[in-house]
């Protein structure tokens, strides 16, 4: 896939996920970004697929532009970004000028993959946690793969409104309000005894510069995402470990967890792992599951693209036994959830 095709594909996804500005921006870049520049040539020669299921170069470039706006580095660019409104021709002309002015910065920025750390993905984690609490009645040990800055590791601090029922924290720091369809799991209390996460390029959300970087990955016309993310950042008390997810998980699974249920989870992360890493991870989890007991059970919550329906699939697998339950279909940004579990 060449870069204009990747831009158009990402534009369609952004439109479907409620960002008309990103649709306009990426479509305009697909139509008008000039070939033959050092930045365009570097992107076209990227050593991995450019699209959203792989290197996500459209989102890398768009977030770099947004970072220039958020840091006050380009006033002309800020003037055409939300909440300001301009026509498409003015938008793309200004963006192309910014690409030229800030080419050196953007060449460096795109080295790091996007880290959206969408806090609304806890819309799937909170009800799944209630299902696990009802099944095992044990405190949780959490291990998140692809944790970014760790916002979803704090899901027990959030509440979720499902119809007329509140799930999650009784005194939440924020409340998620997805469009909910289907039955609602019983609100069984759960407790997290330990939480850790890993990422190849984690964000340290105790560092204001890294907070700004995270906010750069949020789409400029989605103020509610920004509000929820900033509120969640206020609760952060941990740093995410840097490393290979499967090597890290091997270490986490080697410890005895008697009296706890060890919950491995990942949200829109597994799909980005190389195939060999996925295979190693599946084998490692299966091996650990085979050793699980009623006193030390193992569980895995996965929210990932699966081509089985709209949005992502939300599944729960648990051991002893290894059964997998299809809990829901869920929007990639947690705006809606169709619960079946």
UniProtKB/TrEMBL annotation:
InterPro entries: UCP012608 (IPR011200). Pfam families: DUF2332. It comes from the Bacteria. This is DUF2332 domain-containing protein.
């Amino acid at each position: 896939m060449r870069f204009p095709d990747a831009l158009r594909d990402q534009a369609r996804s952004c439109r479907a996920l409620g960002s008309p500005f990103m649709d306009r921006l990426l479509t305009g870049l697909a139509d008008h970004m000039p070939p033959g520049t050092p930045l365009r040539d570097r992107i076209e020669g990227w050593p991995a697929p450019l699209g959203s299921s792989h290197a996500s170069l459209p989102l890398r470039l768009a977030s770099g532009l947004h970072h220039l706006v958020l840091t006050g580095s380009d006033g002309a660019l800020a003037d055409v970004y939300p909440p300001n409104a301009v026509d498409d021709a003015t938008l793309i002309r200004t963006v192309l000028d910014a690409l030229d002015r800030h080419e050196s910065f953007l060449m460096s920025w795109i080295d790091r993959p996007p880290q959206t750390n969408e806090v609304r993905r806890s819309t799937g984690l909170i009800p799944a946690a209630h299902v696990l609490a009802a099944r095992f009645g044990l405190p949780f040990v959490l291990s998140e793969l692809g944790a970014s800055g760790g916002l979803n590791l704090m899901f027990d601090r959030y509440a979720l409104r499902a119809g007329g029922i509140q799930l999650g924290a009784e005194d939440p720091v924020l409340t998620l309000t997805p469009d909910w369809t289907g039955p609602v799991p019983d609100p069984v209390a759960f407790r997290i005894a330990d939480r850790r996460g890993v990422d190849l390029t984690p964000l340290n959300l105790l560092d204001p510069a890294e907070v700004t970087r995270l906010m750069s990955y949020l789409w400029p016309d989605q103020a509610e995402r920004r509000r929820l993310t900033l509120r969640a950042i206020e609760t952060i008390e941990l740093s995410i470990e840097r490393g290979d997810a499967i090597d890290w998980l091997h270490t986490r699974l080697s410890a005895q967890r008697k009296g706890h249920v060890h919950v491995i989870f990942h949200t829109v992360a597994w799909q980005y792992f190389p195939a060999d890493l996925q295979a190693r991870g599946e084998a490692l989890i299966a091996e650990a599951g085979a050793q699980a007991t009623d006193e030390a059970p193992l569980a895995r919550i996965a929210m990932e693209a699966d081509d089985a329906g709209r949005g992502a699939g939300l599944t729960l697998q648990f051991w002893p036994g290894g059964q997998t339950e299809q809990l829901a279909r869920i929007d990639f940004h947690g705006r809606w959830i169709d619960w079946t579990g």
